[in-house]
Amino acid sequence: MAAKRKIRVGLIGCGLMGREFAVAAARWPALVDMQASPEIIGICDLNENLFEWYKSNFDSIKTYTTNYEDLLADKNIELIYCAVPHNLHEKFYTDIIRAGKHLLGEKPFGIDIGANERILEVVKTHPDIFVRCSSEFPFFPGGHQIQKYIAENPWGQILEVHSGLLHSSDINFEKTINWKRMIAMNGEYGCLSDLGMHAMHIPLRAGWIPNGVYASLSNIVTERPDSKGEKVPCETWDNGTITCNVEHPSDGYSFPMTLKTYRIAPGETNTWFIEIIGTKFSAKFSTKYPKTLQTMHYENGGTQEWRHTDIGHNTAYKTITGSIFEFGFTDAILQMWAAVIDEFTEPGKNMPFGCITPEETYLQHKILTAALESGKSGKAIQL
Ligand SMILES: NC(=O)c1ccc[n+]([C@@H]2O[C@H](COP(=O)([O-])OP(=O)(O)OC[C@H]3O[C@@H](n4cnc5c(N)ncnc54)[C@H](O)[C@@H]3O)[C@@H](O)[C@H]2O)c1
């Protein structure tokens, strides 16, 4: 068997998502047809306490630093995964690209639309640099099957689309505040940008771009304890529902779409869902029932029956895991990384499904900025 090409990766931000990526790199042998594999050789975080976990699990890491410029100066590093708070996206992403490193960044790809535009200017002036934004949920087999349906366009006329991410990590009012609940670090969008890219990835890729939005935003928890137990303001939006109208990109009609981003959704630990309801064919998938894809075919005069199909582990990128078994969050991260490495090593390839492009991050910001304005003014905003 030919040796796989090793892509030497630097990691900036070793927190929740940094560790998820590191574990995906360690699970790489689970992917059976990949021509290349990522190898983490340098990591950076301000919090040096995080390094011990990496040291005890990854022999490949040679550089541990609190200054990300050390990784930018390392000639051996080809690609950087940057998972840091939103207020750092603009500075870090643009420095990474200018240093000639390829980048997988995290959403929302800039704390606001201005930051995103400035990142995209640097992307445009560095066409040889590969840049993508992370989004893993569409890699669940149910999400992947829905993308295949979208390509086939079996809906008849789409009547409505609902997409969203619901979780309840903020449902405990006593939970200590962290950067994701502070406007200065998370951004004014709050839940909209924290969760919005998850809701928008498939719709944006389908070309379902709203021509206007109306948003309901709720700030449910207005104070939280800080690390000393003192109550401090909790300024960010907790829950957001965006309602919009979408022109079908090819078929000359429009349909309503809702995008839900909830940080306080009782009973939902982390539920990503997409539902497309059409006159002839409908499909629904939710990570709440990760094995089950729901579909309905309807013909005039026929019965209306939802079919529940166990879709198992039928993934975009083949793994050692048999198709009969279950799929989970860490599998989605692995599949997303397979797509990143696949597209990076074979640019222009016809991908099963790719990560978010910089242009799609801009569309996301346009929608979120309009949603923020709508939520504050109570008016619908044209895009
Ligand atoms: N794709 C997903 O499902 C998903 C899930 C959660 C978060 N995210 C995104 O990932 C990014 C990071 O979120 P997280 O949950 O991993 O946050 P986190 O707080 O767990 O990790 C961020 C890390 O960045 C480090 N950091 C802060 N300032 C730094 C600096 N100047 N230099 C180096 N390191 C620094 C922090 O010490 C921390 O360890 C955000 O953009 C967030 O929106 C994505």
How would you sum up this structure, described in words?
By secondary structure, this protein is α/β, with parallel strands linked by helices. The protein has 2 domains: 5-133, Rossmann fold (3-Layer(aba) Sandwich); 138-325 and 358-382, Dihydrodipicolinate Reductase, domain 2 (2-Layer Sandwich), CATH 3.30.360. It is 30% helix and 26% strand. The chain has helices at residues 16-26, 51-57, 69-72, 89-98, 113-124, 141-152, 183-186, 191-206, 329-345, 358-377; strands at 5-12, 36-44, 63-65, 79-82, 102-105, 131-133, 158-167, 210-218, 223-225, 231-233, 239-247, 254-262, 270-278, 281-286, 292-297, 307-310, 381-382. It has a 9-stranded mixed β-sheet. Strand 14 (281-286) and strand 15 (292-297) form a beta hairpin. Helix 8 (191-206) crosses helix 10 (358-377). It is globular, with a radius of gyration of 21 Å. The relative contact order is 0.16. The model has no long low-confidence stretch (mean pLDDT 96).
